[in-house]
Amino acid sequence: MGDESRTYTVDDALAAVGFGKFQILVLMYAGMGWISEAMEMMLLSFVGPALQSAWNLSSREESMITSVVFAGMLVGAYTWGVVADKHGRRKGFLTTAFVTSVAGFLSALAPNYYSLIFLRCLVGIGLGGGPVLSSWFLEFIPAPSRGTWMVVFSAFWTVGTIFEASVAWFVMPTLGWRWLLGFSSLPSLLLLIFYRVVPESPRYLCLKGRTTEALTILEKVAKTNGQALPPGILVSDHEIELSEKSTESENAHLLPQTKFTDEKPQIIDHSKKDVSTLGLLFSPELVKPTLLLWVVFFGNAFSYYGLVLLTTELHNGRNSCGPTELQSTHEEVSYKDVFITSFAEFPGLIISAFTIDKLGRKGSMSTMFFLCCIFLLPLVFHQPQGVTTALLFMARICITTTFTVVYIYAPEMYPTSVRTTGVGVASSVGRIGGMMCPLVAVGLIHGCHQTAAILLFEFVIFASGVCVLLFPFETSGRELTDATVPTEVNGIGGLKDRSISVSSLVE
Q: What residues does the Major facilitator superfamily (MFS) profile domain cover (predicted)?
């Protein structure tokens, strides 16, 4: 009888069952999706130069092969985010995996430049669903260990980049770019093969009022981990918020009316059923962090993919800039340097793991953005090949750390009802940065404007670091919520818990 009066949330359940075998299986599945995206992105460093030689492409046409992928991701990240928030995480990444695998494989058979451009754009649309998988995995992790395991999840991206660099090193000189495109589409196919056994997010189910289905999944999690669920009845955070709000309303009648003349509780009108998911990102509680997050995602994507492309474009320390110089050795050096700099992501992940909770999400991101500026600064002038590779290696450590942490911070910042949409839109803005970076890394470098290219990277990275410092709150150690994040912080970085329910605004 006592248990029937007790309630618990998804967070309570996950904390009770802990991180165990079930989450490891979820991690493997989501990680395969992350490997797939990393491989599809890394191959751009190799396919562009190869096609420029094979099909006699101009620098603009070579850049377009990369840019159309980011254009597709710009569309896909928003589209799949909305789909996942309205129809479920599983349906979101099922569609993305199908589009990515089919379009990726057909890219290997493309008969001409324009068909390849079209198919790579479709690949980009599929890759835009990456934030859906990361949010889905995040919603299975107990709050105390969320930061650490999201860093582990990010390691799959590094595995994908190094694996792709290794495959390219062996495949490109012997089999050519078509085989590389074909091999790179296989991880997405694995997502489709194992899709039937993948569970829906219990947090999403609770938000939609499907607590019975959520309980079934949580019971499976508990059984697999060898633990027991808390006693009582499973309820959503939204139900608890409504109960607390009702209690506050009743208590308000016992207080003098003058108590509310100076302070008005910030309550969103739940009768506004026509508020869109995207519109909630611009609510007073979320508009500032949303806009700042867009700048940071833009800067991260611009600088990360720019560094990858710079590794192939700054392949030597030449003082002259003839487009045909050292053409015969270009590809061999590019494979080696990209392979070496890809290993920079491992130190970046280790730094993320050690700093994400000690310095917080904001502290670790801002520190590494500013350090990245320092490492890139000497490249304003031409450097010997070894120095160039070393500086790019250190810069990539920094930008890997910021990329890792922002993909943890972003879904923690948003409530469940708009989580994948918020991260998806931010990721879309990042794709704009990805679209623009080839014009800098390829266009400016080929045009003998290395100094201008590096200074532009410096500005974007520095501005991103400043925006991180302006984030209004820290998410380290906070439980995920179905309500908007607090908008105020106290003097020592703690949070004033003034969560406002928004889940009732989204169907």
A: 26-476
